[in-house]
Amino acid sequence: MEQVFTVGFLVAVLAAAIAAGSAILFACLGELLAERSGVLNLGVEGMMLIGALAGVAATLGTGNPWLGAGAAILAGAGMASIHALLAVGLKANQVVSGLALTLFGGGLSAFLGQRYVGLPLPASFGREPVPLLADLPLFGPILFRQDPLVYLSYALVPALWFFVYKTRAGLRLRALGERPEAADAMGIDVDRLRASYVVVGGALAGLGGAAISLGTNPGWTEGMTAGRGWIAVALVIFAGWNPARAALGAWLFGGVEAGQFRLQGAGVDISPFFLGMLPYLFTIVVLVLATRPGARHRLGAPAALGLPYQREERG
Amino acid sequence: MRSVSKHFGPTVANDAVDFAASWGEVHALIGENGAGKSTLMSILAGLYRPDAGTLGVAGEPVRFRSPRDAIRHGVGMVYQHFMLVEPFTVAENVLLGARDRGVVLDTRSVEADLSRLGERYGLAVDPRAPVWHLGVGERQRVEVLRLLLLGARILVFDEPTAVLTPQEARSLIATLRALAAEGFCVVFISHKLDEVLAVADRITVMRRGRVAATTTPAETDRRALARMMVGRELAAFVEHPAEEPHETVPAGNVALRVRGLRARGDNGLEALAGVDLEVRAGETLGIAGVAGNGQRELAETIVGLRPTAGGSVHIGGRDLTDKGCSAVARTGVAHIPEDRLATGLVGSLDVSENAILRDYRRPPLARGPFLVGRAVAAFTDRLIHGHDVKTPSRWAKVRTLSGGNQQKLLLARELAGDPAVIVAVHPTRGVDIGATEAIHGSLRAQRCRGAATLLIGEDLDELLALCDRIAVLYEGRVVGELPARGADLERLGLLMAGIQEATASGATAADRPPVVLRG
């Protein structure tokens, strides 16, 4: 046992944690945008699955994983536009619409994905060490010998942080989630902007799916996201709707995932069923805690999260 | 605005209304609740689209499809419920609507603009303070500053003084006059006739969706305005409420005793910080205070809807602290909540179902697990006739009744069992003058019968007219109490602003500068 925890082992686990965490991170950042605008999207898992499948299908067709990632983004955005139509346009219950999309995405991807199961990809995102940075001690192998999508996720975190907190568009985004009527009175088109953020969020979820099917686990298997979408939903709350904290949370869960395989490889006996259950358990616990009376305020949840906006009309 | 009409379902809110206001004037728009004032102004501000009619600004015809269009044409509205994002700072709230301010948040230039404008119009406010830190008066100033910075030349205020202390109201009125003097067009909606007569250059009176008259303060008086508003004479307006005699009922035993009561608000912060109160049978205690100083939490804690964080509630000598609302209700406590459709009535149920919500478990309304239809109908009819609730039938959905009739139904239900204690929160909010009169009458009758009433109000005139004593709540504490008869409005105002050394005489208090509220 002592030999298991060498520096080399830890570096390998951390590198794998970051790789595995990037899928969760993309989805989590997307959900963060949607929730900041006041729309809860529980369809993330379904959007990731559809994205993962679209990524595989497009890569098989074109041989280019970048086109695959593009297809994943479009597929995720397409799924999310259903949510935008139902939950924003038609003011349907956001929870119901989101859950329905997760079920739909799971079923549809399993159905359409039958013929892709087990097919080897002609190309996928491989590790591409960053010159110079990859040679740094410790940090090099952990952070800079990853695939390109992981580097993209690095860039996205500070970019979104700046967007949310330091730009006028970010201010409008936060206002949508806090007080849509105030935004409306200030001449902001609440529904159109909310719908856009839901779609962008879905695009990121789709990309998250591709980060799995074209990156960490190339190829298609049914239900391959294995609850990562749900982790993303819970992480947004856990992170207090802050992109930087979302990154830490995503890598932590990537670590749980990566550690699981390494520990099993090293002969430590943890039931895979127990580990497979963790994402759902975590999501349930976080959602239960987050919906307790008063908790929303303490956690800093957008005040109008989950509430469709309608101009006050009597009738 | 020319022959503007607006319908909400079957209700006609505006019926071919003509309205004009000029540059450089303060134009008051008055009328009963439901007369269509707010609707008309919401159309002007682009929030609603008119079904018919045309709008013109500065001589040019305009069509507003959203508030954005209205602001672009220089029309801005200060709503009764402020349109501010509370976690944002003042500067951020201003930036929210601003154009041409770049991509990156540039709070510094806005802060400078805010200070400049604030000085010019007497609207001082700290641009870096988060809005939730600010008092109501300051928030209102933020709204005005924001509209000015957005380039609004026509400013509409929806009942701007209803939420202010008398001192703040005076300061706001000075600002309105200053704006008009600079050529702005100021329209303000009000129901306070004295204020309207004092401030306005012209007054337009609306009644039932139409313009009843347009006049000037010089040509009219309180009585004439009241008559135009309701179309008939009203007792409440002929006599000044504060001068109305209080019949003295011998004070009975203490019916409601609250000791050291603490509770948290919805945001988890302390809302009640040790409240002591006593109300005797046959006595009405008024609770005054600027909204958000613990009034709602006080009522909810007493009736058992909100857990206490310390202290006790005794009703009729029994300890009912945290015993739950059904235990409190069984003890004979009537509750008229702040938001009648949220916690008082069920809008989607019909009149008779709402009527029995309190007593449906007991005979004669229930026999075992079954409701007795005939008894329910008789009970409902008794409430409807007893309190003059205007409803098409027992089966009308409560949501379709007017606010006044909803409130009368609620009152009828809660007072049906001759409660020993009544906890009423804003009982006449959003209710027309006729229903207000009726509700006041019911509450007076209950007092004479010997009920102990805790009346939480926002309208000082109402509290002065109905109460024996008035306690002022500020930041979750009772900061002062005075007898209602001959109460000093100045002193009440200062207490509401949290200034306790207000024992000075009214004359010196009046000379003080307007009070700045800080949360």
Automatic annotation (TrEMBL), chain B:
Q: Which GO terms describe its molecular function?
A: ATP binding; ATP hydrolysis activity
Pfam families according to UniProt: ABC_tran (PF00005)
| InterPro entries found in the cross-reference section | AAA+_ATPase, ABC_carbohydrate_import_ATPase, ABC_transporter-like_ATP-bd, ABC_transporter-like_CS, P-loop_NTPase
Swiss-Prot/TrEMBL keywords: ATP-binding, Nucleotide-binding
* Residue span(s) of domain ABC transporter: 1-233, 256-500
SUPFAM superfamilies reported in the protein's UniProt record: P-loop containing nucleoside triphosphate hydrolases (SSF52540)
In terms of Gene3D superfamilies, this protein maps to:
P-loop containing nucleotide triphosphate hydrolases (3.40.50.300)
Its recorded name reads: Ribose ABC transport system, ATP-binding protein RbsA
Species this protein is from: uncultured Thermomicrobiales bacterium
